[in-house]
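Changelog-linked ticket: flavin-adenine dinucleotide example.
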Amino acid sequence: HHEPLFAQARGDIAVSFEFFPPKSDAMAETLWSSIQTLAPLEPRFVSVTYGAGGSTRERTHATVERILKETSLTPAAHLTCVGAPRDEIDAIAREYWDLGVRHIVALRGDSPEPGTKYRQHPQGYRDAADLVAGLKRVAPFDVSVAAYPEVHPDSSSRAFDLENLKRKVDAGADRAITQFFFSADCYFRFQDEAAAAGIEIEIVPGILPVSNVAQTRRFAEMCGAAIPDWLNGLFEGLDDLPAARQLIAATVAAELCGQLYAGGVRHFHFYTLNRAELSYAICHLLGVRAR
Ligand code: FAD
């Protein structure tokens, strides 16, 4: 017996949306129109990423500030500790707090030179867990951290990766957001293992609606996520049919969300890539409606 997944407007699902800071005026326009489209869905928060090695520090700050001042949304600022001394990171966090930002997504970040391993700055935070502890010393932020259902590429084992997540929780993390994945079973296995490891915070699935498999493959290679063969195959022959690709992207992501919902998930985090349509459509299918 299966309840129809897409039958009714549900009031029990929370969503959040992730954006990246725009690089040009044209990209800024796309972002702001996307934010306006998605805002009526009343996301729990909207997060703004921090470019590799802190390269978008000013733009992340400006985007977060604009969200705070021009919308009624709750912004979450991503912050990484790579390549910067602790006092610099603390100063950025204090500035956010003074501005009225209450939610930080705390990340370690990656080495700015591709292919080389992360190295702690001599006066820097050691890793994300250390950063979380530092942020909580600055102010009582709501802190989200990253989690990896398919294991982070730097991790020696699943157990080590779970221990690392546990260290972030012990340092004060309030929730985890996962790297994207395409198998609900993979998420549920991770959730079970996290629970067995004593991790009690919410693990929010990060949903990436895929309409461009080549681009997704590039993301996936960097972060250790697997693109299943069936997903590769789905986009074969559709290079010149963008509308068909969009419909398939929404269908695949909504199906994944439906399976996660059936397994008890009630908060979904969308990697929007600054586009509203796919995330909006998937939310609608899930029964998330504008109020
Ligand atoms: P950590 O939790 O510190 O650890 C990463 C891995 O390294 C873990 O697997 C752990 O097992 C291992 N490890 C940790 N500490 C040690 C240690 N002391 N010794 C040995 N191994 C260790 N990147 C950006 O640059 N900007 C962003 O805005 C951004 N947003 C993200 C949002 C989400 C939801 C996710 C999932 C990722 C995001 N990232 C972002 C990517 C992230 O910075 C990278 O995945 C990075 O490689 C790891 O960051 P982390 O916070 O998970 O690190």
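Closing comment: Example verified and attached. The CA atoms of residues 19 and 273 lie 6 Å apart. Residues 49-50, 52, 78, 80, 105, 107-110, 126-128, 146, 152, 154-155, 160-161, 164, 168, 177, 179, 206, 223 surround flavin-adenine dinucleotide (CB under 6 Å).
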